Amino acid sequence: MPSGPGAFRSLSRLKLFLTEVTSMTNGAVTSVLLAKDGWLLLSLSNRDQLSAVAEGIMDMYAEYGEKLPLCERDLSAQDLEERKTGFVRVAVKVKETMVATADTTRRRKRATTYVPTCDEIDLLEDGNIAWTAEELSAIEGETFESCGYVLGGVSGFSEDQLDVLLDKAKEVWGEPSQMTPDELSQLGNIATRFTVVELGELNLTDIDTVYSLSQYGNWSSEQMSAAVIQYLQVSEKSLDELNSVDIAGLDKFICGLTADEITQLNSSAYGVSATSIGTLEVCNTDQLNAFKGHAVITYGPISSWQPEIFTEVGVVIAGFTANELSSLNTTSVAGITPLAISLIPPDTFGNGFTLDVLGAFDEAQALAVTSEQLAALSSSQSLVLIEAEYGEEQVPPEVIEDIQNIESTTPEGEPEDEPGEEPEGEPEKKPEKKPEKKPNGAIKNYQRFQFILISMAVCHLL
């Protein structure tokens, strides 16, 4: 807690600054401005004041982190990068201030490289990305033993930082084959730096540990394959012997199986764990198509599925063919999750959904459509989608006019003018098809406008 009037003046000053910054119309600008004013943190006169402010910032960032999935869906890559850059700058300022205000004894004892303490690691949370690889390497074994789980939960470390932390884990807990399930669970994102060989040596007898590991980081297909193979070996089970708990517990790692291997799974076990499979984002189209086979066995022909079944199978719909998508009606589409929509290959998306079905998209489904999928649509499909995106609100006339102008200049059928007047042997000049598929940036600009509004409303850094 802050002590003395000076601390409260600093906190009041910070709150005033944050109020001004959070009134900005662009969340990305907010984080950059906050980073520029890192001097405010440096102006704090003692460690208690720093801790109060730093902890407040990290708490607010933790709240933002809970909303991050929405931000990743609704913000452009540039905005996300600016947000990340802004937070890194703030975290660095907090770290530098902690180092500068460390007690004299610690500063006398420490070597050239600063040694982070457990208290500092606890305070920084996601801000631990501010430590250099050298500083992370200098962490004492006892500190890592007590606070390694905090570092494992940080999602923004570079590969170099993660490699150093994995080396520290090996120093403290031994080689990968010697690590206990509890220690593996504490590694979190750090575990993503295990090699394929090391993953094949892990003690994955506990399905809860396997599930915990699968939740972190970006695993490569080779790593996921190594993990699921190791689980099969230590559990002494074949693919068709995996039950619903196994399948749900493997989570992302189940996408380490090939499409042929997925077909060997027990369909009944799939049926019980279908909801879990339906949330996975890392399986490719062939793998999802293989899961579709189990879904058909479980729920019957696709034509008989009710909306709730589409919701339950989730992303498996991204494994549908264009013909299967075109067979859907406006009732069944209500159950398709936004995540499933975003994972459908662009060509399949453009060739599969009919105008009626696109028009039946709700706002969340329409917003889930990616720029690549938009580019695969005709202008008439784009117009129907933009109307679905606006919902009950009136689409601005300029947006409709923009799309209609493109449609009139790039007709989908034969042109109205007969090409007979063209010199024989000279091909008729037609407008390029690119504008037909991407309506003059109208949808893209509108989405960006919405993304900024959503950023202000629910994804604001502070």
Automatic annotation (TrEMBL):
The lineage of its organism: Eukaryota, Metazoa, Echinodermata, Eleutherozoa, Echinozoa. One of its GO terms (cellular component) is cell surface. InterPro entries: Stereocilin-rel. Residues 426-439 have a biased composition (Basic and acidic residues). This is Putative otoancorin-like. It comes from the Eukaryota. The keyword rRNA-binding does not apply. Residues 413-425 have a biased composition (Acidic residues). Residues 408-441 are annotated as: Disordered. GO terms for biological process: cell-matrix adhesion. Keywords: Glycoprotein, Signal.
